[in-house]
């Protein structure tokens, strides 16, 4: 389950209710994404709150963009989140799709690349390993609870990025717009092959998609509204054109059928992305997950 961080008019009560409802189960992870030039909560601040509001579920950034942060400070913040959560953190990273976020924090747009992301990850892994990045008296702490640092997932839909990330990533934080299971499996095959060539254990394979429960027209309209808000860097007419086939909208039985199709291709985890902050959406999704 993903936190409704891209929804309007959020407050602490909504966020805490959503987190606690997810933690009640049977979800495996609680996820949230990052944007800068938007009204969503700061990722690291939210991580601290989620660590306090939950006790069971894994916490997963889907995704955080390392190039938007100083890598040492980011490593310290994430290690702190791993400490506070008792070692429940997984870090999904990506290059980010919005150049305006780079400009907003004064980050170098030329680092919006696979190499730029990998360079930042390399620094973070050195911090988590207890290495000194400079001639400091002590290394940067705290040490993460998980030896060597939290597991790392690469957020991408591109085979090139996925192959490159096999050297340092533990899995894929994927996404699908149109729920094309065959196409998703093609990307999973790329990951399986790349990890095998790197001599690593098989990757943790995830995908994600937007969801809405309700009567067909009502649920589809909910997805459409969310996309118009979230995809504010895309002309509205393009969003209008893609909305009818993006994400999932419907009943519990229909969602269960979709999840089972992804299960059949070896998906380790499907991350549902809400299009409403109504906590009832979490409870309805929990009923579906319990049937898997």
From TrEMBL:
One of its GO terms (molecular function) is alkanesulfonate monooxygenase activity. InterPro entries: Luciferase-like_dom, Luciferase-like_sf, SsuD_RutA_monooxygenase. Keywords: Flavoprotein, FMN, Monooxygenase, Oxidoreductase. GO terms for biological process: alkanesulfonate catabolic process. The keyword Cell cycle does not apply. CDD domains: Tetrahydromethanopterin_reductase. Pfam families: Bac_luciferase. Residues 17-241 form the Luciferase-like domain. This is Flavin-dependent oxidoreductase, luciferase family (Includes alkanesulfonate monooxygenase SsuD and methylene tetrahydromethanopterin reductase).
């Amino acid at each position: 389950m993903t936190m409704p961080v891209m929804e309007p008019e959020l407050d602490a009560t909504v966020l805490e209710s959503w987190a606690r409802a997810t933690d009640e189960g049977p979800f495996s992870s609680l996820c949230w994404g990052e944007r800068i030039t938007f009204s969503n909560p700061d990722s690291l601040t939210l991580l601290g709150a989620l660590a306090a509001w939950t006790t069971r579920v894994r916490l997963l950034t889907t995704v955080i963009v390392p190039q938007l942060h100083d890598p040492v400070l980011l490593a310290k913040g994430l290690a702190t989140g791993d400490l506070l959560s008792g070692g429940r953190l997984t870090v999904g990273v990506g290059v980010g799709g919005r150049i305006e976020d780079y400009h907003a924090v004064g980050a170098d747009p030329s680092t919006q690349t696979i190499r730029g992301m990998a360079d930042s990850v390399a620094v973070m892994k050195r911090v988590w390993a207890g290495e000194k990045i400079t001639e400091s008296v002590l290394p940067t702490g705290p040490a993460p609870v998980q030896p060597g640092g939290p597991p790392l997932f690469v957020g991408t839909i591109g085979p090139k990025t996925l192959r490159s990330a096999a050297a340092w990533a533990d899995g894929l934080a994927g996404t699908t717009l149109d729920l094309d299971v065959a196409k998703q499996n093609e990307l999973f095959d790329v990951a399986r092959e790349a990890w095998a060539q790197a001599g690593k254990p098989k990757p943790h394979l995830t995908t994600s998609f937007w969801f809405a429960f309700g009567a067909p027209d009502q649920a589809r309209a909910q997805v459409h509204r969310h996309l118009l808000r979230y995809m504010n860097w895309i002309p509205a007419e393009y969003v209008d054109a893609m909305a009818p086939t993006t994400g999932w909208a419907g009943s519990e039985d229909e969602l269960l059928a979709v999840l089972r199709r992804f299960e059949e291709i070896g998906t380790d985890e499907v991350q549902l992305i809400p299009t409403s902050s109504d906590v009832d959406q979490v409870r309805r999704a929990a009923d579906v997950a319990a049937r898997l």
